[in-house]
Amino acid sequence: MTAVQLPPLDSLADELLFAHMIQHIVIGDISSLLIALGLTGPILAPLLQFRPTRPLRVLVNPIVAFTVWTVNIYVWHVPAAYDLAVRVDIVHALEHFCMLWAGTLLWLALLGPLPKPRWFNGWAMLGYILAVRFAGAVLGNVLIWSGTVFYPVYEATDAAHGLNALSDQSLAGAAMMIEQSVLTILMLGWLFFRFAAQDEERQALLDLAHRQGVELDEERARRAAQAGAGAGERLRERLLSAPSDQPDDRDGADQHDHAPQGVGR
Predict the structure, then answer these.
(1) In the chain, where are the structural domains located?
(2) Which of 129, 166, 199, 223 gets the highest tally of CB atoms within 10 A of its CB?
(3) How far apart are the C-alpha atoms of 18 and 158, rounded to whole Å?
């Protein structure tokens, strides 16, 4: 992330819309994704003990996070806001901070260890990924196909680089579309792997219960598989330790909405 905020790319971002868009892609999508992947349960648990960080639980709700991210990218691409960011350094820094912050919330809602709403299951996650893709695609297509120069602040510097402003704008939109397409494919691959792993875990729990002679509801096994490896292991231990009794309801799956995954383990 630091590299794109130093010369030569940072200087080019003030001269070419395409270079500025590359900055946004690296900061708002790639760097924020890496941050979200690094914020594991054990890291977040101590942070959430402080009162100022507690709203993070609300902000990473999928609906809230998606709304914040969408509003953020569209507001900053309003011509007046975009031009101001190019002309005023402090506004430019604020723009990048907002991109990073909103992007991190977006990925934490999908990939992070904080508890997810019960309705945010596999199909809801698929809808979330497609909604993000659609929101970005609309903006990218507007930049590519509008035929109108939205950011005249680049006209003089575009000419100095042998470009016209409309071509520069189309290149910026194309960069956004290509990057989001690649990222969407990767996220769909991750989701498919998640589906397969959860189904395998659910079936393994059901098979273990059958071998132990214990009745296990399929829905309960599904919840344990969706809640993460820790919940599945706890249920497995109970099945093994109580071969002739129904395991109690404290298998961890029902706690999925109450504690970050991986926290305290």
Answers:
(1) 2-196, 199-255
(2) 223
(3) 10
User: Cβ–Cβ contacts within 10 Å for residue 26, how many?
Assistant: 21
Give residue 240's identity as a one-letter amino acid code.
L
- Determine the Cα–Cα distance for residues 261 and 247; give it in Å rounded to an integer: 22
| Contact (Cβ atoms closer than 8 angstroms) between residue 116 and residue 257 | yes
pTM for the predicted model, two decimal places: 0.77
Length of the chain: 265
Pairwise CA distance, residues 1 & 259, whole Å: 31
Q: For the packed helices 165-212 and 122-145, what is the interaxial angle rounded to 10 degrees?
A: 170
| Average pLDDT of span 234-256 | 59
Arithmetic mean of pLDDT, 55-63: 86
198/207 Cα distance (integer angstroms):
14
Half-sphere exposure of 229 (CA within 13 A, CB side): 6
CA distances from 117 to 3, 82, 101, 121, 211 (A): 37, 35, 21, 8, 33
Q: ∠99-109-251 over CA atoms, to 5°? A: 160
